[in-house]
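Hi R.,

Here's the chain you asked about this morning:
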Amino acid sequence: MAILAKLDGSNNVVNIENLDDWRATDDDGNLSEATARNHLNKTGANVDEYKLYLPETHINKPSMGGTYDSENDKFIQPKPFSSWILNTSTWQWNPPTSAPYPSDSVENGGTERYFWNDADQSWDRVVDTDPE
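And here is the predicted structure, written out as tokens:
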């Protein structure tokens, strides 16, 4: 399935729609913005409100609450915490620390789970407790 992001006037993603691949694929079998726009035009949709997700170009899939950066042709996920900073090389949000996750975190191949504590600007280990 091809993915279309519906954008508002400020390039906020307000809806995500799946589109049959054949409605967004050109004669060479490649996803094509022009083909998708042609389909949308035939349905009477405002083609300027939609952007076709192209994995090789956009990196991130569009998501509700995210935005589309038309200057860089990238979808940006919603900012998870007010202190996080957008890395414009990876197009991912990073915490304002030198390491995105502690070295023993599950994300780095370890066994510990962490959550971001925005008030303290730190990673806090998840402590599992047995309910009694």
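One quick note: The chain has a mean pLDDT of 92.

Cheers,
M.
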